[in-house]
Specification:
5 strands, binds adenosine monophosphate, HIT family, subunit A, alpha+beta, 5-stranded antiparallel sheet, 114 residues
């Protein structure tokens, strides 16, 4: 989608600190990091959010999680642990409507989340 910032990052039209990419997904550093490691994993295909990741997208959803594990190993947070977050909609404060998996690590996390 032309007016989608994450589509433009995936296409290489907008610069981003890409840490991993393959045919299906791109992972890049969040510009407003909430932890020492904060990477976003997105599909190259435009999907608006997790609510749209139905059965047709089961394989793609798995690829997002697998790419997050790869990022965690690369970023050296696999052993200490990390948190995956996907926000859907207004109350969850989703702000970019191209589905993305937050990979957060490098510090102790709190529960419940805010
Ligand atoms: P969410 O609130 O779940 O929709 O998260 C969107 C995330 O995208 C936020 O953490 C933003 O800091 C991040 N973000 C927005 N624009 C960019 C960008 N151009 N490059 C990297 N991260 C971005």
């Amino acid at each position: 989608m032309e007016d989608c910032i994450f589509c433009r990052i995936a296409a290489g039209d907008i610069p981003a600190q890409v840490v991993y990419q393959d045919d299906d997904v791109v992972a890049f550093r969040d510009t407003n990091p909430q932890a020492p490691v904060h990477v976003l994993v997105i599909p190259r295909e435009h999907v608006p959010g997790p609510l749209a990741l139905g059965d047709d997208y089961a394989a793609l959803a798995g690829k997002l999680v697998a790419a997050a594990a790869q990022v965690a190993r690369q970023e050296d947070i696999a052993d200490t642990g990390y948190r995956l977050v996907m926000n859907e909609g207004r109350q969850a404060q989703q702000s970019v409507f191209h589905v993305h998996l937050h990979v957060l690590g490098g510090r102790a996390m709190h529960w419940p989340p805010g």
